[in-house]
Amino acid sequence: MCRNVLVVILVVACSAGCLRKKEPVLGQRFEDGFERADLGPDWRPTGGNFGIVDGVLRTQDSRNHTLWLRRRLPPEVEVTFDAWSESGDGDIKCEIFGDGHSTSSGEGAYTATGYVLVFGGWGNSMSIIARMDEHGDDRKVTRKLKVQAGKHYAWRIRREGSKLSWWIDGQLLLEYDDPAPLTGGGHEYFGFNNWEAPLSFDNLAIRAL
Q1: pTM for this structure?
Q2: Which residues contact 143 (CB under 8 A, 6 or more apart)?
């Protein structure tokens, strides 16, 4: 009897201690200009090739190993940053309202936990907003704008209610009105992502709406 009680106590204690600690909630505003030598404690790398060079966040060949911000997002939020690709393939990518720790397995296979935004993906042939599966039939697609290698683009992503909107250089690129919005536990984080193209990110700002 005593042994059984002890086992139960140990299991409960381990379960409580092993639960993933929640990150702090985003304040009214968060900013990162990457003016330092390393990623620092605000970011959770998951194995990708992310680093800071000359005040800019850079990555290449990260193969869906997301770099997650260690802040929980409110349901309604605006995210802005500058991004550019040194490749004619474009393929500038991020994820929003993910779980804050998921990453690819094997050689890059990955089902996202949030919304994936890809600018100039698939050989710079299309841009998308996808709900968890970037290859899914429910993704929103446009072919009206292509990435120019080396050009800096101002991104703005905003969610109000069920609608996720995405602007590039002040131009509305895509919207995703989700009848079952990804919110709450498992859908509270923002991350930069990458497949193969050499990408750079800078001047990140996030504010609660």
Answers
A1: 0.89
A2: 125, 126, 127
